[in-house]
Amino acid sequence: MEYANMFTELEPFGEPDCESELKLLGTDEYSKYYFQHTPFNQEVMSRKTFLIIGRRGTGKTALSHFFSFQKVIPNAAVIDVDEPAAFQQVMSKIAESAAQSREVAIPRLVKIWEFVIWSIIFRQFQEKDLRIKAACIFGDGKEKVSAFILHVLKALMTKFLKTDNSLADELESLISSETIQTAKAAVLEVAKKNPIIVAIDTLENYAVKDQSMMRATAALIQCASNFNREFSQHNLHLKLFIMAEIFPYLKEEILLNTLKSIRHEVYLHWRPKDLLKLISWRLWRYLKFNNINGYYENKTDWDKHRDVLIEKWEPFFNRHLKNEFNLVEKSFPYVLRHTQMRPRQLIVLCNSIAKCAQEKGNFPKFTTEDIIMGVKQGEELLADEVFNSYSSLYPRAARIAEALSGLPLIFKGNELDRRASQTASQWTAGEYSPSAFRQLVAELGIVGRVRQIDERAGIVEADFEYANNSRLPLLVGDTCVIHPMFYKKLNIQITKNLCVYPFPDHEEFKIFDVA
């Protein structure tokens, strides 16, 4: 299939998930479509970086595929461990059998992960050296990596989990055996010429009450930390992706030594200028390969966000628009404030805007009506996905959040306690409390804390937990605000002509000053 023809299958701003784009474009063409002008692409290639943390839709899977065509580490061989759901259940069973206390269980699970990771590497490079091939003791099948891990874990269960006491000693003996140690040395010889990157994606949905799986994940983080410290200097790199939705629980309650295991981590917090460049790049590629009216012809320096704004955003979206409340806003902040700063959410909204424009024959230019209608039609889908991503952490999260329905745009924090009492019947037995309700609405990014109100400009600046590396407590005396993404879903009452800007208090996020 020709590349231009492939692009006719894509939405104007691309697909909302990396997997779909890979299926449509293939790996080689996807590497040309991938936008590389973002800080994450450099940060994750650092030798010190092994832990990458992001919420659903922030680009974890895309970054994991980036390793296969990056240029920072030349001639790198990449092992991409995706689809972890294939082996989750077996790993959970092993974790259940490891020990009763996390202090004993996690070190044992670290050993299991260590063996699994080396088994993956041995399988990948078995044809390079007979010493490596000899270490493929649980087979050298050609199935997908996730299926191979499942096979290894089942073999470990059969061999070592007859009694708890045999697990640590026998596995330690296996890992320290001459065969395995010789194979490791051979791998490091290979890595001198061809650096090796192992990228491990993690599950999209976790139940934090599943102690066995949480311990297994904590052990994987500790294993990755140990692996990075010992082998990254030898061109053998491990990159681990973790969901930000569960990371606070791991850090606060499960990990044994956070100062030792969590270091040089990269949080996928997108800046407005990077999202602007990403979304504009996608539209430009679509127009170019579909040869639409020559809009793609002028050259732009994609590292300069002001150039991108003027040359690749404003010709299509205009600089300003008059919003639903008759306030004049700049078009990019208007669209972006209806997201939680995630690429997937911005892609969904912009495709929704494009659809409205196509139906009216305006595409590739978007009128104010196209933008406002597209955002309204897309934002409820975004809200639903946020609820879905937390469904394992908070069963019936969407039903619980309905208690916020009909709230005004701005309200006092004590109103949350009053609304919380209406949700008691929706919580799992023993889970409900007013503080749990406040934590839920903060974690999901529904409710934020007002930082500043500019009545003259009609702007409310607010902090939301999703933009921070730590929790955002909502106290009874705080002035609170609902995120714009949830207005329609929760039937929020707009009683004042104010725009909520849900961006951190940082110079990088003063996007309404960009002109």
TrEMBL record:
Domain of life according to the entry: Bacteria
InterPro entries registered for this protein in UniProt: P-loop_NTPase, Sll1717-like
Protein name (record): ATP-binding protein
Organism: Chroococcidiopsis cubana SAG 39.79
